[in-house]
Amino acid sequence: MVAALETPKAPVRLGAFQKPALRRADIRTLARRRVRAGFDSAETTDHNRRHWARADALSADGSHRIFKRPMRAHELVYEKPFQELLGQVDNETTVLMGHTRWRTRGNEFNNRNNHPIRAGIVIGTHNGTIYNADYLFRRLGLPRYAEVDSELIFRLADRFAPEGPIDQEGLKKALALCRGQMSAVLASRLDPGTITVLKGNKPLCLRIHRQHRVVLYASDDAFIDFAVDKEKGWRELEVPPMTMLTIRHEDVRAIENSEFRFIPQERKGTRD
Q1: What is the CATH number of domain 2-264?
Q2: I need a surface site. Which of 5, 39, 78, 95 has the fewest CB within 10 A?
Q3: pLDDT tens across 171-195, in order?
Q4: Boundaries of every domain in the chain
């Protein structure tokens, strides 16, 4: 399993499972804790700005279900569709993504702008802002479904997944054109057993449990601490910035990593 919790702009994501993994009840409890922890934290640290919650589950056969609502996570986790989504999570679930959004671009009441974002056959979540997204959409002739800059990353991945698996070398070359901030998690619906993690210049913490064969990720270690609730066996994965990870459903312990690049920029009008 690959799972994530997040805060403003890149809030909560939940992960990918491999057999044998957690019991369904354990998975459901873990997911609920992570989502709720991520959103509650976001709401208490953003000076009352509003955050919006959503989740997605992708299975080994490529089927998936996305649940989005313009509401805070501590409310979303009690919604019936959310409970139903978690109820469908089992050892065939390869990735479970959750996200809370701190709006920078795109109206949050338009669900097209809310994460997880589906672009063609690619589904993913992004933490950060791509300042030259509008320009790259035009220059590269990419289709655009939403207003948010984050869609660019997943459109690029979709372009480099003509037969299902994402061509990571091609994606790296395209990401090098991006300017701004980035950490992201994405997967192809035609290659659901492969999860790509991009750790750029936004916070991203990862931990692995070898017995459960689960990887958790979040923008802050505190969210993972809350989710695992002092359970033993979790080990931190030390990942430097500008690293692309490949995590495979058949063995989440055999993680591949390589370097990727883009143009870092902390805020519009400045460069690192």
Answers
A1: 3.60.20.10
A2: 78
A3: 999 999 999 999 999 999 999 999 9
A4: 2-264
